[in-house]
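Example 3.
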Amino acid sequence: MIYLSPPHMSGREIEYVKEAFESNYIAPVGKFIDRFEEMVKSYVKSNNALALCNATSGLHLALRVLGVSNSKVIVPTFTFIGSVNPILYERNEPIFIDSDKFWHMDLNLLEEALKKEKPKAIIAVHIYGQVADIENIKFLADKYKVILIEDAAEALGARYKDKFAGTFGEIGVYSFNGNKLLTTSSGGVMISDNKNLIKKARYLSTQAKEKGFIEYVHKEVGFNYRMSNILAAIGVGQMEVVDERIKRKREIFEIYKSELSNIADFMPELPNSFGTRWLTTLTFKELDPFEVIKKLRDNEIESRPLWKPMHTQPLFKNAKAYLNGKSEELFKKGICFPSGTNMSDEDLRKVCDVIKYV
Ligand SMILES: Cc1ncc(COP(=O)(O)O)c(C=O)c1O
């Protein structure tokens, strides 16, 4: 079976996991957590990092430490539910914004919503490894005095003018889930240049235990959101190959594009940005993606439709949305191709051949 984006170990992870076992730090503390946090923060050039059990918990803590509850929060409609569930955990109301020609949040609709809704925060999302128009989103967030959080779950290593996705807002979050560019099986990292925000999130992520007591003392609600030292050991091995993995993802994209650009329009890259092409995504000119997905599955190849927009989900049938039709069109025509960095060129050829002869 050719999978969509399976884990791709460097080979070193097993040594680090063994070392973690031998130290007996089989717990949500240990030196691999410190090392992993250090590697992520220095890679993306942020001042502080916090390793967590996943990115969803990171977004939840981001809202919590920034005091975003019982408010309105703007988020793109064209995203994964992991961007939106944390908004609900804090009893906020999501306001959905449709996509532009780069598939990211449309700036005109964003400004209209900022004027009308008076939200407390924006969660910008960098989908499929490609950066959103983050400089302009930040400009609007500043103009309307709204907190900016970045969901960079899918975009570790993506850059806009050499600044990393995740480092523009108050807080950024990366996912290390099994299907991501790098994985710790499940995991997330929160980053921020604001030391106090990370300090507060660290405290909340370990059940909000008060320091300076022998017994456990709690003054507020906490969470159990930390990453295990064992998983962080995997993360250290993964971070060592981050640039190699991005290079291969981009090569895979170029191969698909050279083979199939007569029948499809590939996800564009924002000018001045460098995306990781975490998944190769495109819209077909004529083919029905759902037919192609079936055909690929018959040939033991996994593929997926593009995100089903949040405003079309039963969960959000009453939610406010600023729409232009783009995300629904993307969903109708689009597909994610298998993009695992451990795919061979022969695998890629097989995928292309199946598509050409649908
Ligand atoms: C855009 C987006 N946001 C959030 C998440 C949540 O990440 P995690 O699975 O690590 O909680 C994911 C992926 O899983 C995602 O793709």
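The first strand starts at residue 48 and ends at 52. The domain at 13-239 is CATH 3.40.640.10 (Aspartate Aminotransferase; domain 2).
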